[in-house]
Amino acid sequence: MIGIEAMGCYVPHHRLHLKELQHELRIDNRTLHRLLWERKLEYIAIEQDHTAAGMLAKAADNLLAGKKLTADDVGLILLTHTLNPFAPYLVDPLGKWRQQNGFADTLTFAAAQLNCASIHLLLHLADRWLRAHSQRTGVLLLAGDKMFIAEERCLDDSFVAGDAAVAVYLSRHAKRNRLIHSFIVGEATIYDGPASPPAAYAWYQQSFVYGLIKMVQTALNECRLSPQQIRYIFPSNLNETTWLRVAHALDLPHDRFYYPTLKELGHCHNADPILNLARALVERLLQPGDYYLTLTAGMGGTFGCSLFQY
Amino acid sequence: MINGRPLYLSEFFVSLPPCQPFKQRQEKEAARRVGSNDVDLDTASLSQPLFALYEEYALPYDDWCTRLTGDGRYAAEGIPTAEAVGAADLAIDSVQKLLAENRLKAGRYLIYAHETIEASLTLTPVLKVKKMCALKETIPFSVSQAGSSSFAAALLLLDCLHATASDDSIQPSLIVTADRLSPPQPRTFFTQYPKGDAAASCLVLAEPDAWEVLACELSTRAMPQGDPYRWKWADFRAAEQAMLDQLPSSIPQFLLNNQFSLADIALVVPQQHSDAFLAHVRAVLKSEALLYRRKTWSRCNLLGSDCLVSLAEAVSNKRIHRHDLVLLIQAGPLASLGFILLRRVT
Lengths: 310, 346
Hints:
The complex is a heterodimer. By secondary structure, chain A is of the alpha/beta class. The radius of gyration of chain A is 18 Å and the shape is globular. Chain A is built from nine helices and 13 strands. Chain A has a five-stranded mixed β-sheet with strand order 1-9-6-4-5. Chain A folds into two domains: 3-171, Thiolase/Chalcone synthase (Peroxisomal Thiolase, Chain A, domain 1), CATH 3.40.47; 178-309, 3-Layer(aba) Sandwich (Peroxisomal Thiolase, Chain A, domain 1). The model of chain A has no long low-confidence stretch (mean pLDDT 96). Chain B has a domain at 211-344: 3-Layer(aba) Sandwich (Peroxisomal Thiolase, Chain A, domain 1). Chain B has helices at 22-36, 49-56, 64-67, 87-102, 125-132, 150-163, 233-257, 275-285, 306-316, and strands at residues 7-9, 13-15, 19-21, 78-80, 109-113, 139-144, 173-179, 198-205, 211-219, 267-270, 290-291, 325-331, 337-344. The longest helix of chain B is centred in the last third of the chain and has 25 residues, at 233-257. The radius of gyration of chain B is 20 Å and the shape is globular. Classes of the chains: A alpha/beta, B alpha/beta. Chains A and B meet through helix 4, strand 5, helix 5 and strand 10 of A and helix 2, helix 5, strand 6 and helix 6 of B.
């Protein structure tokens, strides 16, 4: 069965409390209060040593430390990121890592621009790629971002970006974490983030929660499951307000949404759902047979959702 | 293609900004750079994200035009350069022409294939193309980090999506290639042709159209030479030679894998990459297949759109006839190689 066979996470050790970041983020006391007490953000992971490309390599190293993979096991390496300025032109972000780990000839490229829903784009493409290439064993997925312009970490009073990277090995022979289906949507409500026209941006901010609700409902309907059959939802670390609203709309208890890393790291773009899933696996929260979802929303009305069975 | 399921492409629609002599363009960008260096990158704003990115990767950008421009041999070459618009705007122009010509209002997927980066932290180019072209039900995403072979990467993905789709998903998809070299992304690199800005788009369909895709292959080999911005001539020559050395075996092998030989190919359309690259392709072809050299901007590399612009020109010049086999060779800028074998249907 196609599913997640191994994961590797890289989170920088350096964390700063939002109060320590207030000046750098140029946020007033009211915004700080809201981020802390309504959005439930607290500490932000900040990478000091590595570039975003280096962080991807670290996540991949951590995956290989737990699961040895050779070029025969990996037919394709797909990477993604939210920030479009990710690696400079001509720089191969994984070149050195591929050289060092026996993947120099492995087909590698990036698929992105669903913003923070791009991890589900990778799952969608990798799943379809494995279905189309029956002789291939697995796909290595890498996602990560580093906010290299410090004062841009904060988006209004909505979220604060942290730095992290994850690696996922999607295998045809997975023993746990069967991937049942991945769904992606890119509405393009806006295309220029906070630089969009104010009215359009305000409309996007008000409406994206409905897109998330619709995404979950679509996924469950197509897989013929009810919300109550889902043991956990591992979402992006957007903020608590968003997930309270989505849980309420789906008539689910809020504790079905599991995102312990929100308080510890901030919103680490596409890494969030995998970081939260990895924590749940460490804490043995899933039982065999449990269904779970990963769920993301990105700037501009992009949404992603994958249904798994443990 | 996969499992023998056919894949077709429409005609290509290109968008090219006005042409300028390369030297003139270079001087303008250098002047802009002098201004940019006055900006304190510790407080880099949303308008300077590419400079901040180069700073983050500790890359040289202050003297790129002397470090990476080779010996100035292309100073008089004309190259299309976008002044006031970004790559996404070129893509929109190209896709709007494509949609108008094909009377199409939606597609299953829209793939934005690129290798350069827009100078914005907030812009999502593929969402802009989708929005401005009113492609409401389309799933947009981008493909990159495949060098100038991003079209081949997009085609391989669409082949998978097409081969594993349910019946309701066989509606056309779109690929648009788009690049613009905003500073500090270098337009030149050692002896390679200077790079120009361009976009090209086509539909990818299950029903017969202008081109049948017979095969597509992509190689994205990691180079041992490390960071290209710190290369010396020896590093460049070694990396270039490694790429060139693949051609004598990989071109015939690609054709053989698909039950063809060079003698079957009516026209080979290579990337306008460099004199060395074109000479090596010509040597591989010998007299068995014709090489098409673009008439306009023949010593300018249009990156992911390059072969597609050449192909559109060859069609326009009636160099291709019904049932002809055409081999596109996308290459570079450093190590990637993409082969696309097409048969002219119309």
